[in-house]
Amino acid sequence: MSFQTMTREIHGCVPKIPLDFCKTLINRAWADVRRQNLWSFLIFEANWLSPPLVNAGTATTVTGNNSVTLDPAAAAAFQASITTLNPITQRQFRMGISTIYNIWAWVSPTLTLDRPFVEASQTSTFTIFQAYYPAPFQDFWTWTSIRDMTNFIDLYTDRYTRAGLDAQDPQRTWYYFPTDVVYYGLDQNPASSTYQFPMFELWGAPQYVLPYQLYGLRKGTPLANPTDTLPPQVGEDCVLALARKYAYEWAEANKGDSPRDAGADFRYLIGEAKADYTRLFKSYRRADRETVDSWFSFRRSSLYGKFFANYNSITQTASPGAYF
Asked: What does the H/E/C string look like for the chain?
């Protein structure tokens, strides 16, 4: 059943209810259904790819200016590192262990930073890397797991808050193999393809190309186009039952004062719609439970790379593990 058909059905249930308001009630009900359960259609799988470290040549900065000029060697190295998976607007610039700046634009040989450079004017070595990574979707909800597939490291997603990470490594001098993923903020660059997406810091920052496999949950999105439909895990009857409850509440609140305008006893209809919704919600949740529980009820972080002895012939890394 399409969004348009669902809207017409709600419109036909209550006299005089505005058609556009019916769309609002359906999306309100649809949002409530998504929030009240872990659904399999909200599970996502995605990837991050860390870019190579760029530190060839030198960069020239001026105090109070947000422009950075790269020499020919640096400009060539940075340009060669740019791909669709690692765009300019998601990189960071740093000199030594000073402030980390976000790169907002690049017109060779000039970088534009997100704020004025506050350190002393200088021509010096530098690093361009990526510490902050956008969530795969703007409606991102939470992580299930994030894995460094090359080094079999299961990254922590809940060990540190930003305050805890700042206490642990205030100058961000830990590099190479990230161990933690910490919320950073929303992408503030209007030129970015992920503008207003949640951003996460990989700590300590990776220094070479590494793929990360991501699993998590989305919040879901509202119905917008007339042809939009619900995912198969949730029937339209469930969402419509809750939308009818909201519509009947609107009708009860907007009854006229005269008996002629009173109409049906919407209080009774509210109760019936609520009962229908509760019954249908339980039914669809039960049908979807097996898929959801396989991700959440029996899931735990990988122990490899944390507790067990291991060796990786690709990266020539090894660990004796931690015994307890």
From this structure: CCHHHHHHHHHHHCCCCCHHHHHHHHHHHHHHHHHCCCCHHHEEEEEEEECCCECCCCEEECCCCCEEEECHHHHHHHHHHCCCCCCHHHCEEECCCCCCEEEEEEECCEEEECCCCCCCCEEECCEEECCEEECCCCCEEEEEEEEECCCCEECECCCCCHHHHHHHCCCCCCEECCCEEEEEEECCCCCCCCCCCEEEEEECEECCCEEEEEEEEECCCCCCCCCCCCCCCCCHHHHHHHHHHHHHHHHHHCCCCCHHHCCCCHHHHHHHHHHHHHHHHHHHHHHHHHHHHHHHCCCCCCCECCCECEEECCCCEEECCCCC
